[in-house]
Amino acid sequence: MRIGQNPENNKKIVSEDVYHHIIVPVYVPRLDDYFKDSYKITRLCIGSINATRHYKSKLTIVNNGSCDEITSYLNGLYASGFIDQLIHHKTNKGKIDAVIPVAKQATEALITITDGDVLFKPGWMDAVERVYVNFPKAGMVSPVPHGTLYNHFTAHTLYDAFFRGLLKFQKLCDPEAMLLFAKSIDKETTMYAKSIRLQYQLTLRKKNANAIVGCGHFVATLRKEVFKKTPKVMSHWAYSSSADRDYIDIPNEKSGFWRLATPENYAYHMGNIHEEWMDEVTYKPEQKQVLHIIPKAQHNFIPYFVKKVFVRILMSRYVKPWYFKKLGLVEGYKEY
């Protein structure tokens, strides 16, 4: 039975005035063993996001069947208005299957997907968005640079930048921060076995703007158009590098976009162990909020296979040393 008129009938919904959407999957099934510090890590992650995001951003947390303590904490944040959207799953859906449906439905120009163990520094949104402003062909930008992924799903980036004369080796990144990331994923001795990659990074240089070629995906900001190219089926992986490849890396390449990172490190990968330095990252509530008008995506007209073949030749052991030396890598150009 219905009595009266629904007051919401024929009422137009006003669109949210936001252009940057942050999505964080949280999976903490218990608070012992591997997850014994996860409550602290989760609080630091979400707290740092809220302390550093601008007012034209939206925060979505996807709770992947976490324990009661974490669920209660997230509910409290939502009730207090610190979370714009909170999605609960009774069981773990995995990273990709938790975030991709949300990203596909998002209308914001930029969508940041981040693991739940990332500590953000002030200024990260400004730095990431500025890369999009300076390099409109960018489709994936991370606030964490490292010099090992310049040839990882970067065919469009390298081909386009080559013919525009934008490529250059420069000393722009903080070696200490890069080593800290390597340590956080237990690759302190292997990631930078070639120490030259700590000293020089392959970059795009455009007037007063710079960006690092390539990036990882434990935290990255993507254009919404990228998610139109993701598979239509679920991955069914709790976590897998192949899922990141199929649902993030390949779609960005299929879209014809560049893959970049900010020269300065703006986020830390905390891992599962809490350390004292994590509490020392401070935030000023009065920090200036910088907003940007994100330019529309620029599309490519050269077929992807042409770019891929060209880059494969350019990065071959016969051509790469000569080309890297030409780009300013005076030492170590043979083993970079």
Automatic annotation (TrEMBL):
Residues 39-128 form the Glycosyltransferase 2-like domain. Its EC number is 2.4.-.-. One of its GO terms (molecular function) is glycosyltransferase activity. It is an enzyme of class 2 (transferase). InterPro entries: Glyco_trans_2-like, Nucleotide-diphossugar_trans. Keywords: Glycosyltransferase, Transferase. CDD domains: Glyco_tranf_GTA_type. This is Glycosyltransferase family A protein. It comes from Jejudonia soesokkakensis.
